[in-house]
Specification:
The protein has helices at 20-31, 44-49, 53-56, 68-73, 89-96; strands spanning 12-16, 35-40, 62-64, 77-80, 101-104. With 108 residues, it is of the alpha/beta class. 33% of the residues lie in helices and 20% in strands. It is built from 5 helices and 5 strands. The protein has one domain (5-104): Rossmann fold, CATH 3.40.50.720. The mean pLDDT is 86.
Length: 108
C-alpha cells in the first residue's frame, strides 16, 4: 500500500476511540509499521481485550482518555473514530496547545 506524500513520514499516531473504525485504523497503521497508540474511555485492560487489540498493541501503547492530551503532543497525527467529536474536551485541549494534526474517520 502506498500512502499519500503527506502521510509517508508518520512515525507516531494516536487513534482516539476504539470502536470498529478505530480498531480498523489501528490494524492498518500497525501493518504499515507505524508506532500506534490507542486511546479510549473506560478501563484500558477491558477494551484492550476486545477485538484482538491485545495482540496488536502492548499495554504501554493503550491509554485512558484522561491522560491523552500529553500523548497527543508527541504524535504526528491523531485519528478520530466517528463517535469522537472534534470538540471533545481532551482533543480540543491538545489542539489548542498546537499538538499535531487530526484526521476524522467521520464521513461527511
Amino acid at each position: 500500500m502506498v500512502l499519500p506524500p503527506e502521510l509517508q513520514n508518520l512515525r507516531r499516531v494516536a487513534v482516539f476511540g476504539m470502536g470498529k473504525s478505530g480498531v480498523a485504523a489501528v490494524r492498518l497503521l500497525v501493518k504499515l509499521g507505524i508506532e500506534v497508540h490507542a486511546v479510549n474511555e473506560g478501563e484500558v485492560e477491558a477494551w484492550r481485550a476486545k477485538d484482538g487489540l491485545g495482540e496488536l498493541l502492548t499495554l504501554e501503547r493503550c491509554h485512558a482518555q484522561a491522560g491523552a492530551a500529553s500523548l497527543f503532543a508527541d504524535c504526528d497525527l491523531i485519528v478520530l473514530s466517528p463517535g469522537i467529536p472534534t470538540t471533545h474536551e481532551v482533543l480540543a485541549s491538545a489542539l489548542a496547545r498546537g499538538c499535531g494534526n487530526h484526521l476524522s474517520t467521520r464521513q461527511t
